[in-house]
Amino acid sequence: MTAENDENKVKEYDIYKDSYFRYLGYANEVGESFRLLIPLSLVKLSYVVASCYVVADSVDKGYLMWKKPTLDQETKYRQTAIATTDTLIWQGLASVAIPGFTINRICWMTNQILKKFRRLPTAIRSWSVVAVGLGRDRKSV
């Protein structure tokens, strides 16, 4: 494919990447950041929201693959399964599991360090942990 063909190619709109809907995939990161200040049920709900985003994106990618014309039905089933599974695994790790675990540990460690400053008011310590959790690098957003 030449550079001219790349320029003439129309980019297909992806609601899961090209709209504000994509921020639902970050819900668990916000939940983890606020863990000290909100009920555990809300933290869990943030994981449900992020996981629903991942499942919806995976189903969408499978459906888009299903709509593509292929040579035979077996190839269509295989390509659809691969597209769905690939998106589910990739998004599950990249949007939910790895960031959630990382922010959880960073916030926990920050809280442990700040607890050593006994004169630091609890509210300042808690909000500092939230700020650290929310303040990680967002270049990819």
TrEMBL record:
Family stated for the protein in its record: Belongs to the MTFP1 family.
| GO cellular-component term (any) | mitochondrion
Protein known as: Mitochondrial fission process protein 1
- Top-rank taxon, per record: Eukaryota
GO biological process, any: mitochondrial fission
Pfam families linked to this entry:
MTP18
